[in-house]
Amino acid sequence: MQILDYIVLVLYFSTMVGIGIWAMRRVKGQEDYFMGGRGFGKLLQTFAAFGAGTGAHEPVTVGRTGWTSGLSGVWSALMWLFVTPLYWIVAVWYRRMRHLTLGDWFVERYESRSLGAAYTLFAIVFYMFYLSTMFSAVAKFAVPLIGIEEYAGLELRYILVPLIAGIVIIYGVLGGLTAAYWTDLIQGIFIILLSVLLIPYGLKALVAKFGDPTSDGMMEGFRIMHERVSGDYFSLFAGPSSGEFPLHYIISLTLLVTVGIVVQPHFIATGGGSAKSEDEARVGLLVGNFLKRLCTVGWAMTALIALALLAGNTEIANDPDRVWGVAAREILGPLNLGLVGLMLACLLAAMMSSADAYMIVTSALVVRNVYAAYIDPHATEKKYVAVGRLTGLIIIIGAAGLALTYADVFGQFKMAVELPILFAAPFWIGMYWRRANRTSVWATIGFSALLFFILPTLLPMVAPSLRTDPRLTTTTHEVTRTTTRPVTASDVAQHEAWEQAVAEARERYQDPERLDEVLKAIGTEPANAALGEQAEFTTKRGGQAIFWDSTVPVGQPQLEVVEEYEEDNTRVTVRRQAGPLEGQGPLRLDFLVYRGLGVDLAAVSPATLETLRLPSRLLLPFVFLILVSFITPRNSEATLDRYYAKMKTEVHPDPAVDHQRLEESYRNPSRFNDRRLFPGTQLEFSRPSVKDIVGVLVSIVVVGLIIALLMGLASIGA
Hints:
The chain is an alpha+beta fold. It folds into two domains: 3-368 and 378-418, Sodium/glucose cotransporter (Up-down Bundle); 466-616, no CATH class. It has 29 helices and eight strands. The protein has a four-stranded antiparallel β-sheet, with no helix packed on it. Strands 1-2 form a two-stranded antiparallel sheet. Strands 5-8 form a two-stranded antiparallel sheet.
């Protein structure tokens, strides 16, 4: 980075802090601090949803998965695409709740103050993991840009992560949600720049390095990209060796995030709760998230360009998480226009625009559902705001600590995605079924926590022999596919990079065990042949633990051949582990059900194995809650009448008029009975309005257009 790059960063940080100081003067009470006075229009709601929903981990993750799986790697972030039309409906829920936190919703719907506290604990843990992915991503991105691995004997991430956390704390703590939303507007523009900036410059770099020197057109760049990268990397649903994201895995991820997204704590604010009216809530949430999907298209194209341009880069060969940072440095650095600093500021914007919202939402939960509920229910508004500012530190410090402890960006993200299953079923069912009650909700939370989080960790600690039990240490078959095809330019560069990475590792690491770890991370030798020659390309998948996160051999690894066959000019060899293994990580109890049903889990692909985690996590909590609800006491009918009447009362932008409408609904809860889809039952579904139907249909069309855009861009120059 040059002086100009650092100037860009200083200006960016100064602006964020200045907005926090300005917004601090506008804060008078809890609603101002936690909801910005519920006065935000379509523009700020759009960029709030866009900023809070776009994390720094996502471009980094798409860069990695694009590097390893081609275009299909985009689903590591684009899995949210098919959920987006639902936002047209759910935005109304959050505005009609008229709450400051989702914890307040659980308290009201289930008449349980302790559920609000439990939800607060969940939010703290969830955001620590979710934000830690962003801190880790920023560190991965920044190291190649700054050009140093260590400073004063410390890894650079140990300096960067606390520094960024400090900036977020300063402006977020000072200004509350108003500061977060105004900075999100600015940072949203930066994120859009992040998503598109590398594409034109990257295409020009391809032309300059590999094309006709007299041509600088982007079409020539697309042609070179296809020339240098194998065609299977341009498939959206099946990358190299079927990719990491086949269609069934994409569907399972979509269903999982659909169920869990609605209970992510920030949705009470960015999902519509802070908007002036329901229309502002809907437009903001939907448009903001479609902006994010469009940015994801840009990230995918950048990953493909980087694959064509940087296939020989040893830094990426050692750590694919560095794709984005190395690409920014190699493409923008030589221009010396401050663009490297701008790119780093853009990624910081992606992280900080999420972090500030998450911090404020978590502090609101602590204040409303713990401090006010249990410690000081009669405190002044000024004191509540002061407590909120102090407790906002918890989420940022905790997330920074996790980021410094773990550095697996995608692994941290998957953990965060699964946590909401604890509260997803109580939310969905409570929205529409009167019979759900606090006893069944507590039982479901306990059941889900035990089955998916507590027992899988506790059982191996109590009975260590489980880790070496041959019935539990089986793995999926290791499938080797050998295909003959012409060697591309990127294949040649990848082999050169592999050779260089291996040579550097052997020179740097003298300890045999450490060297073995590094060589394993670098991977097997790519095909070695001249450009255009026919060569054999071998890919391996499988060998994945079924009942554990991973397994390690006890002694020397042993493999035996199960079968060999030819398939579409590809030689396939299937092997299985024959020696003793030891399981690592938590025990996947739900997979014991599949074994009991006689399912041959060893024969499935890694993506299918991940897909099989869906039924238990998606269905069991819902089924359990419904069954327990039938045998446990109902909640108060008067409270339920009041709640459902409120949720059917349209919000008026004028608080006084809105209050009058609510009072009318409370006096006559049956006034909306003519809108019920299932009158005379315990189900509280209302007939959709024309606006509901049209909004969802238009959103579905936009989803199709985004997929068409992505496939169209990837086909240019083919």
